[in-house]
Amino acid sequence: MTPDITIRPARQEDCSHLALFNDAATRRLSSHLWGLSAQTGQSAFEVGRSLIATAADHFSHYSNWHVAEVAGQVAGGLNGWALPVEVPAGYIENSPPVTRPLNTLKMVAGGTWYIVAAAVFPEFRGRKIGEALLAHAAETGRAKGFARLSLMVGSFNTDARRLYHRLGFEEWERRPFTPFPGSDPDGEWILMGKAL
Fold first, then answer.
1. Contact 188/120 with Cβ under 8 angstroms?
2. Is the pTM value of this prediction over 0.85?
3. SS (H, E, C) the chain
4. Per-residue model confidence (pLDDT) at position 184
5. Residue 165: C-alpha distances to residues 5, 21, 112 (Å)
6. What is the pLDDT along the chain (196 residues), one digit of tens a residue?
7. What are the C-alpha distances in Å from 160 to residues 3, 23, 73, 98?
8. Nearest to 172, CA basis, from 196, 148, 193, 145
9. Which of 67, 137, 181, 184 is deepest in the core (most CB within 10 A)?
10. Nearest CA-CA partner of 184 in 21, 75, 32
11. What is the pLDDT of residues 36-70, one digit of tens each?
């Protein structure tokens, strides 16, 4: 890790940043889903920020995040958690159609330490912050006793795919991408994994 990058557990006051990182990492999928449950006149980001701040049993909760800071400024974020081996009955069928391919891949990766989201603000890119966040994810997964780290990336996100390959992640499986308003074009979700 470069000397000016520090990684710390996220705090509730980071939730606005975390909502932005979550949406950037999912290529707008998060804000699309948040918008589906927004009330009239309510921003999708209000929904997401509230979820991250208050839903303690949800994977997006701030307690599952770490924040990268550079000179005291929030620069990037990482959300990780353990993918369960067993999922509830109806897990795929009861999820929104746009998330079904992702949820199918999560079932393939059950039992791994899963990187839900990793993102860096544009003005901080090119400073090895993404690498530092992914190294932190690997350290966390190992410390929690996991043998494998997993993540998902869109086939259209070539920069992220290049970074993951360089850091030792290998393609595991693919599923078709389901476009949504404002999304990337057609492609595939790619599940990648790395031994810890």
1. no
2. yes
3. CCCCEEEEECCHHHHHHHHHHHHHHCCCHHHHHHHHCCCCCCCHHHHHHHHHHHCCCCCCCHHHEEEEEECCEEEEEEEEEECCCCCCCCCCCCCCHHHHHHHHHHHHCCCCEEEEEEEECHHHCCCCHHHHHHHHHHHHHHHCCCCEEEEEEECCCHHHHHHHHHCCCEEEEEEECCCCCCCCCCCEEEEEEEEC
4. 87
5. 22, 21, 18
6. 456 899 999 999 999 999 999 999 999 999 999 999 999 999 999 999 999 999 999 999 999 999 999 999 999 999 999 999 988 888 889 899 999 999 999 999 999 999 999 999 999 999 999 999 999 999 999 999 999 999 999 999 999 999 999 999 999 999 999 889 989 888 999 999 999 9
7. 23, 15, 23, 21
8. 193
9. 137
10. 32
11. 999 999 999 999 999 999 999 999 999 999 999 99
Find tokens 């990268």 and name the residue: 68
Give all strands of the β-sheet with 113-120 in edge-to-edge order: 5-9, 65-70, 73-82, 113-120, 148-154, 188-195, 170-176
CA dist 25 and 27 (Å) reads 6
Superfamily of chain region 5-195: Gcn5-related N-acetyltransferase (GNAT) (3.40.630.30)
